[in-house]
Amino acid sequence: MNFLLINKPAGWTSFDVVGFIRKKARLAHPKNKKIKVGHAGTLDPFATGLLIVGVGREATKRLDEFKGMPKTYLATIQLGAVSDTYDIDGAITPVTISVSTVIPAQAGIQASGSPIKSGMTSTDEINDVLKNFTGPQQQIPPMFSAKKINGKKLYELARQGITIERKPSDIEIYEIILLEYTWPILKIEVKCSAGTYIRSLAHDIGQKLGVGAYCSSLVRTAIGDHKLENAQKLA
Known about the structure:
Blueprint: E1 2-8, H1 14-28, E2 37-40, E3 48-55, H2 57-61, H3 64-67, E4 71-79, E5 81-83, E6 92-94, H4 123-132, E7 135-139, E8 148-149, E9 152-153, H5 154-158, E10 169-182, E11 185-192, H6 198-209, E12 213-223, E13 226-227, E14 232-233
Parallel strand pairs: 1-14, 3-12
Antiparallel strand pairs: 1-3, 2-3, 4-11, 4-12, 5-6, 7-10, 8-9, 10-11, 12-13
């Protein structure tokens, strides 16, 4: 039985990581052609960071022990635009804001209906909005996700241009820390329950601010007490 802490690179699916490690394990043990490998907690392809991988029958049986653990993420959010996938891999559309959304005291105000410019949202406004997203809540899973409804993965439907009603899931965001903000880039640290979609959080923050937003980068730094700093990169 073996558990590995892996630093998943961008562009890889979690299944890609499992396949890579399975191949390595079978090369190391050529007589064992049925080595089981699995992971605990999917990361989106654009995301990087901690992925826990189980190698061997006993380890894969225990992966559920990690799936329910709290997670910590570092998210970079692009304000002023939206994405159909809520992340950088989707079709991105700039958002135009009316002058009523602008904070009058700030310089560089543009006329109503003009493209978003710097200084459109204050740090105080962002802090107030972030506070609204802490605590127990319900979150609607994005259409571009692996969640199954009636046996079909949502992203398979989304790729066909089909959008269906999704029931909200119970989640909890324990803490959101504002790390850095210079329009239009917002960086936050999020500590949350299992099952939380940070992409959806980014989108919802943009909606609440009235400027639109999507997640441009995402790093999972912790699963329970297991830290990214102790993870190994794939060779």
